[in-house]
Recover the amino acids of this structure.
């Protein structure tokens, strides 16, 4: 059977970015270079999806550990090409737009500024990123890693931003693993559609 582009959009798709063979260590343990490579492939997939216009939303996920839903212990990132923008993402976009109209600035830029000034929930920071436990988080041990530079589309990330994301992931996931003895986790990249 042949599937048309319209049918493919209605169904969505899934693919995996796989680390080199025999790589079974958690993401934080493989080093910044390998993380940067995986994140770079994800960034390129986001940019390509936008350029072709064949998706509404592409999400990047890593489930680590069986309790987090991982199907394998091989290091990988999963990309889900969705035929519609997920409700939670649409709510975030709408809320961010309303915040910009009301306050005149990006809510995530404000979060970065406020969290740094009031470090009670800070987990890690450097010149490029801020990681913190959000106020009223949706799940236990939730951590957000937010770039200091404003840009809602990770598909436009340059080499420096990709490297900074890799380093932030390595640092934050390493701290989480050390503090909680290597827990299972779900990593989700939130980016503009």
């Amino acid at each position: 059977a042949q599937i048309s582009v319209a049918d493919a959009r209605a169904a969505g798709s899934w693919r995996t970015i796989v680390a080199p063979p025999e790589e079974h260590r958690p993401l934080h343990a493989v080093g910044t270079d390998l993380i940067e490579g995986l994140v770079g492939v994800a960034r390129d997939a986001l940019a390509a999806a936008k350029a072709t216009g064949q998706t509404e939303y592409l999400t990047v996920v890593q489930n680590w550990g069986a309790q987090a839903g991982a199907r394998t212990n091989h290091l990988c990132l999963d990309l889900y090409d969705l035929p519609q923008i997920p409700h939670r993402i649409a709510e975030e976009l709408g809320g961010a737009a309303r915040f910009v109209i009301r306050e005149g600035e990006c809510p995530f830029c404000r979060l970065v500024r406020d969290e740094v000034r009031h470090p009670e929930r800070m987990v890690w920071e450097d010149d490029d990123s801020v990681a913190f436990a959000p106020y009223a988080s949706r799940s236990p041990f939730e951590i957000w890693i937010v770039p200091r530079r404003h840009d809602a589309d990770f598909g436009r990330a340059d080499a420096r931003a990709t490297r900074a994301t890799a380093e932030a992931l390595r640092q934050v996931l390493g701290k989480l693993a050390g503090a909680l003895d290597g827990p299972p986790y779900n990593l989700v990249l939130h980016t503009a559609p």
User: Anything to note?
Assistant: Strands lie at 13-18, 57-64, 76-82, 122-125, 129-132, 144-147, 185-189. The chain has five helices and seven strands. The helical segments are 5-11, 32-52, 87-103, 107-117, 159-180.
